[in-house]
Amino acid sequence: MRKYHAPVWNEPIIMEMGHKGERGIAIPFIEEDIQKSTKDAKFYIPNKMIRKSPPNIPEISQPHILRHYLRLSQQTLGMALNIDLGMGTCTMKHSPLINEELVKSPYFAEIHPLQDENTTQGILEIIYKFNRYICEISGMDEFTFQPGGGALGIFTNACLIRKYHEMNNDLPERNEIITTLFSHPADAACPATAGFKIITLYPNSETGLPDIEALKAAVSKHTAGLMITNPEDTGIFNPMIDEFVKIIHEAGGLCAYDQANSNALFGITRAKEAGFDMCHFNIHKAFSSPHGCMGPACGAVGVRKELTEFLPVPIVTFDGSKYHLDNDRPNSIGKMREFMGNIETILRAYSWIMSMGPDGLRTVAETSIININYLIKKLTKIRGVTLAYPKQNIRLDQARFSLKELKDETSVGTDDVARRIVDFGVQEYFTSHHPWIVQEPFLPEPCETYSKEDIDYWAEIIRYTCEEARTNPETVKTAPHNQTIKKINTKALNDPNQWALTWRAYIKKKGKSKQEHLSP
Amino acid sequence: MRKYHAPVWNEPIIMEMGHKGERGIAIPFIEEDIQKSTKDAKFYIPNKMIRKSPPNIPEISQPHILRHYLRLSQQTLGMALNIDLGMGTCTMKHSPLINEELVKSPYFAEIHPLQDENTTQGILEIIYKFNRYICEISGMDEFTFQPGGGALGIFTNACLIRKYHEMNNDLPERNEIITTLFSHPADAACPATAGFKIITLYPNSETGLPDIEALKAAVSKHTAGLMITNPEDTGIFNPMIDEFVKIIHEAGGLCAYDQANSNALFGITRAKEAGFDMCHFNIHKAFSSPHGCMGPACGAVGVRKELTEFLPVPIVTFDGSKYHLDNDRPNSIGKMREFMGNIETILRAYSWIMSMGPDGLRTVAETSIININYLIKKLTKIRGVTLAYPKQNIRLDQARFSLKELKDETSVGTDDVARRIVDFGVQEYFTSHHPWIVQEPFLPEPCETYSKEDIDYWAEIIRYTCEEARTNPETVKTAPHNQTIKKINTKALNDPNQWALTWRAYIKKKGKSKQEHLSP
Amino acid sequence: MTKKIEHTHPYIPNSVLEVRQEMLRDIGFENIQEILNTIPKKLRLNRSLNLPDPLPSEFDLKKHVSEILSKNKSCTEYLNFLGAGCWQHHVPAVVDEIAHRSEFVTAYAGNTYSDLGKWQTFFEFQSMMGELLEMDAVSLPTFDWGTAASFAIRMASRMNIKKEVLIPKIISPGRLSIIKNFCNTGSLSGNIDIKLIDYDPETGLIDLQDLENKLSSNTSSVYIENPSYLGTIESQGDEIARLTHNNGAELIVGIDPISLGLLTPPINYGGDIVCGEIQPLGIHMNYGGGVGGFIATRDEPRYIAEYPTHLVSITDTIDGGFGFGYCTHDRTLYAVREEGKDFTGTTVGLWTIAAAVYMALLGPNGIKEIGHTIIKRSHYAEKILSEINGIETLFSPYFFKEFVVNFDSSGKTVNDVNKFLLDHKIFGGKEIVKDFPELGQSSLYCVTEIHNQEDITRLAETLNQAIK
Amino acid sequence: MTKKIEHTHPYIPNSVLEVRQEMLRDIGFENIQEILNTIPKKLRLNRSLNLPDPLPSEFDLKKHVSEILSKNKSCTEYLNFLGAGCWQHHVPAVVDEIAHRSEFVTAYAGNTYSDLGKWQTFFEFQSMMGELLEMDAVSLPTFDWGTAASFAIRMASRMNIKKEVLIPKIISPGRLSIIKNFCNTGSLSGNIDIKLIDYDPETGLIDLQDLENKLSSNTSSVYIENPSYLGTIESQGDEIARLTHNNGAELIVGIDPISLGLLTPPINYGGDIVCGEIQPLGIHMNYGGGVGGFIATRDEPRYIAEYPTHLVSITDTIDGGFGFGYCTHDRTLYAVREEGKDFTGTTVGLWTIAAAVYMALLGPNGIKEIGHTIIKRSHYAEKILSEINGIETLFSPYFFKEFVVNFDSSGKTVNDVNKFLLDHKIFGGKEIVKDFPELGQSSLYCVTEIHNQEDITRLAETLNQAIK
Ligand SMILES: Cc1ncc(COP(=O)(O)O)c(C=O)c1O
Ligand SMILES: Cc1ncc(COP(=O)(O)O)c(C=O)c1O
After folding, report:
1. pLDDT band at C4, cuts 50/70/90?
2. How distant, in Å, are the alpha carbons of B364, C417, D210, D277 from that of D165?
3. What whole-number distance in Å separates Cα of residue C234 and Cα of residue C227?
4. Which domains, ranges and CATH numbers included, belong to chain A?
5. Whose CA is nearest to atom 15 of ligand 2?
6. For D79-89+364-466, CATH number?
7. Looking at the whole model, is its pTM more than 0.90?
8. Average pLDDT of B172-197?
9. Which ipTM did the prediction report?
10. Which runs of consecutive H residues, i.e. helices, occur in A168-286?
11. pLDDT value at position B519?
């Protein structure tokens, strides 16, 4: 194993930094003319509304703020820095730097969303064309990029389903959304937020796939729709997916395909062929827009022609010479997010697709498939690691493993291993969404931007750690050891007397900070 | 002491990375038309000149190149990341990020130096105005920014002195340049390169200053000039500097003021008042242009009116409405560097001066002076540390200390301490230029962008290390311990059978790499 | 190079043919088609995607995209007075440096140990927002102000099990639309009725009488904004709070945090849940992509239990240092799926980091000074515009950053005026004619610290011509 | 905020008045003036500096400087055919990312332990250059090609204690001027005479007869370039080497490394010291600030001993890893002042890093492909220009990237033509009329991988109009 140690800067909380009187930046001064020809600021603020005491944020000079946040950035293990393939369902892929250059352009960064459309023809062209491309990729007929994340995309789909049934005067009767346990939790939570009752199909314990018989039993006149991920968080492609759709359709429901993780599907299989009415993609995953510490993101929502009237406004249209913002859509559900959404993700995705072309996209998909199956081969050779569900089945983008055997043998579980592998310079892996019906799970996704050597090395880390669990379990359980910090007290996080969401709360609950005050 | 550990990535040498067939970037393709209407490349290359075998550089995909160099960057302790005040003579100051934004602008980065001057009025205006400002700061009458570093600036001054005496038909008689031991080594090496004999005045062992009597003894009809730093690398300002100049002038020589480190002088004292004929500033030091791992840099050279005719071409002039490049200067020494020099440094310096104004510049100088004298106060309290030369004297920007007492007591010397302090997350300090007539020296320079707490903490590191030298000398001698790598074999660096300046040489000398081949 | 479909793509190491073949063999396949056959044929796309030929060369790609983008006109070339929920402020270079660090740009959901820097920055965001707001509990931001307001309203409704929210009419129609999507589940479960409250067309203040009339035992919460969508400062916060609380409802206040150097935070007049927009805090407009919404409350378990968003808490490490983790993670969909409080997901992490750096750069003096610059410059603009014949400005003197300009007496439409301005490289204020017909031919102008006297004068002169 | 001279500057923490006072007290002074009095009065400036009022606000500053800069026309808006020592190539985004990392931007002379990443990158630069050149010793770059050539000539002179260098006339006058400053110490010690060698005006090749005539026992070195300043490829390298070596002199060859995918490295035809320009390797033009010069030799102690520049060597650590340090540091001024070999100093560290990343990105295929694209596109341009009536192109067919265009038969001057082009947003080739009068009204055109067919056609069409 390569020697590794994370940077340890031991930075204080910024609230303890600086010195009274210091400043990080100076503000434009007010011209003498303006100074004179206007009144005192307090004249423009109702008396009661004037702030009495300045906020207690720190006073710090610029070099120290820069130093602090540069250090904190180093203490963050971004995908660009590590073999980040342990983060299943996240598609931690290379985000090309050229796309970052493009989004920094003032022709994008300094555009106001309400500018006259004549002055935004460039970005409208990008949106319009990308819309056509993603329609081709999915087989849908129109997309909206307004949802600022996958979950908001799913919520949008739930709202579209709601609207559809409302227009058909089918509410409140059709008030049930069916999903599967291995579909992303948002496929349950978002329609629930929209007012639906959720019915969850459990996986068959042999195949790992949701049971079609269970589905048949679940549908009824209450069925509003199906919201389902495929492949689910097991990486197993549901080959009966079109049957699922058919059953829902026959029951009068709509089907929404969660394609957040579509990395293995480009050019291979589409929502359309499976019969779906709508789908969503996470542009910040398969389409290479970086994850940005959890956003900005985009859950692009696409629908069949019949449903386009319900899409959020505006939609970008093209009259053959100019692009327009179409706001005049009376049956639209309105707005899911302010303005047009996080179009920076679309700009990057457009550029990414243009760098790929149809063959490149197919190579993306094929390579993800090869990579995960190669990783499965490597991992299943490790004592203590088992692949959940049928061994012989191909996985498409990710795979769910279990460390139950390891745990039974050594008492070292998946949380311990996740915490230990960071000592080798890789990101903690994603265990799995709850509930853990696969015990002690973990869920890697070696997308196309990892090399064979990356995969070998990552598998080696797992092997090494499993071995260590047998020879030296305490090392694993007390991990991390080479990271920025040591193991934390997690109990405090759920105790109202201990948790602290702000420094002011912390001070109140604990008294003054225990750290020495050494600001450098 | 704050806990610290440097990032340890243990990256392989890039020559061992990648895999045959991988590529980091794709090159623009040749249009079919061009393909067809031109001949094969080899038709355009004389047969003997065709490369036979491809260069043996590695083949690596883009994410891995990015990852490699991001990791290497983390393993580099830039000023922005640490309390970099140990690097005396270097003025490791905050380089404002806004200036980095400006140099990245295509209106600068994508300008060709030979464009018609009508299309470069912006940058010419910056150069012209900055020239006026730096003239005001120094009292000189015209500057060139062509020299790409301090040493090249000093060499330029040597060439100007040579030209001046040549025009006066005083060569080869006037063939001696006088400098002082505590002037930067470039003040000796550069005029030597220009063909001069060097006479070095040694410091008075009491005052640390060069002896005026020695100067008087040194001047003669051979004296071409004086090239002197002030304050020298001791931080002590030579109060008789004008006398030095007078003596040289009387002997018929010219005087060049090395003001590379002028940080404590802004608005306080100038080359002009001391009588100098020429001077140079390091724009990459006091003027805040970042050091860039050793450049790009600028040794701005300024001269008195009488010498302007000799300056390198072109000079930027202003006719009241337009800026021009004046190349028509028959007595010019020509070019010191291709094109205009590293104008990126001038753009940043212009912006920096504009952010400061006259009062700000004075605050820079005053703060540097306060900071170094405060640090002296702190360091001289430490057992084992002594200040070289008079204790009572004020230092201006830096100060030379000695660890001789520590070494005598503990056998831990300055090289050991320098190597140990990196374990606390600060840059190795600069010991001093050679020869070390102050024994076991070190030379900090806490310029204006460090806070009192920074200085306190840095002094604490020295105190801690000196203490450790007594309690645990081996720890210091075998340092570093928390850094990216351990102590190196320095002998190999001077042994022709062991040194290796390229990987190909290394392979030849050592056989295959000893590192395990683990590319991630 | 010659154009051929390069099999090896720079982004895809394992696109090297030999490597693929080797890996395929390792997993027991001859070729990729064998694998794909495991997907039923009818589900497979039996043709190539119909997409443009690629531009694999980075230079060609950059040229292609840049040329499209350059068809835009940016607010650096044009003088911009559009705000209305996305405002042009100066983004300090240090903010950009940090927000563009590859580590931050490419990190995601990494945990306590590997992403400490991210966690600490998030906690610092919450902490500095807490000081601006004088509130102890602040969450990680959600998608935008609209979503934040929606979540706040739903939180209140879960807390007091009531199903009605009162919202002033002086609100952004976009934001209101979002709130409707979240609250109006129609005949499905969990519906929260929205009732609109009148405002005084002279002052922009909320009509207390109308509020009082509409408040009832059904009222779960009252949602107000301060400053309002039209820039007005609401001075009756304490009275609104009293009425709201007397009815057992929660007072939710939406704010623009850049006003908080001058304006008192809502907790001081009785705000229970505070939300708003973080975009002004050092985030580029990005064609509207720069927005993000925060939520804050008192640090009481009953509030904490209802947040749908992530809450970062500080905690201790076993060796006495600081660490961070999610507080009450079991609230969220990640733990309990549809039983979670609403939902969260990938939101605006990078903007959270930018906002943290921005607040640190400003400090208490900077936030006050920028407030001063904005209020003085915007009132200066309002003053000189109001002096133009044919122009009236509404809601003076109590507004911050934005104000309404009315063209009724000029006989021109906002449309006419904005077209004229556009021809003179000025983006005029947002037309609000359709959304606020009661205000006639009106337009919402935004003036921030970036508009200097020259800019304002240029606007006034051009407007003067426009309405001639 | 209101305008007042703020005592506290964001860049200067200790500009806080109270802190200054406290520190002053600590060091035993009442005020700063007491300290300054230690500098003799007559040396002190007794007034304020006469400089413009500051723009402490970052926004104002940015606006001010950006407005000045925007008076420039850049090569992204204009179509540029200027080269002549500074060439427009594509700079990959990854190069910019790395070259702008704060760690690299703000590091300096840090040593082995704290700056390992910098050292390793430098070693990797040397290693990849070594492969391009097939040479074992490569140094850290110096200021530019001109300085690199000067140092190479001085190295040779120290090695063989001879005092004459032969240089072909087909050289950049700027570079020659630098060489003169370094070599012509006039009557002072160490002078190296420069003798110029003729070239064939048809082919651009060196006049071997003239070379032979001028070679003598005084000749220390022969310096040639390949491609030459005018783009021509010198095919007589082996013959030149033979003649040079027969006279006991060193052959120094200056090259453009971006040609090395196609052109054989000088060592293969007898080059002893190789130097050249790194700017094409991923460095922006920066108004000429992007240049940097490399030097390479065989790994023989007699060469190594004469380098003035830093040489990074790999070495071992006590625990068996890699480390780096300076090889034979005692050569340099830092160790032995005027006894050092010439001098070095702060040069072009960041460009060295950029070049390393660039070479890694290109790899062996990329360097070959970019050579192909450049040679095909430049020859295409040459071809279609040569077809224009009134235009002749010189030195065909053996040139790389740059070629000479002659307007004699059109009756126009280069000046006329370039003015016309400029009006059509094209930067025409570099006028070489004064420097190469023997070539008449000629101009040096540069075509790289960034010039596509459309660009070249546009040039041809505009030239066609220009000479009508
Ligand atoms: C299948 C699936 N659906 C939905 C989501 C939710 O996306 P987001 O995190 O953008 O809200 C994810 C994210 O991991 C996902 O993997
Ligand atoms: C006083 C002095 N002169 C000259 C120099 C040389 O400058 P450069 O490193 O830019 O060549 C330095 C650099 O440290 C210096 O401190």
Report:
1. very low
2. 48, 73, 14, 20
3. 7
4. 14-81 (no CATH), 358-477 (3.90.1150.10)
5. B260
6. 3.90.1150.10
7. yes
8. 97
9. 0.98
10. 186-193, 212-218, 241-251
11. 47
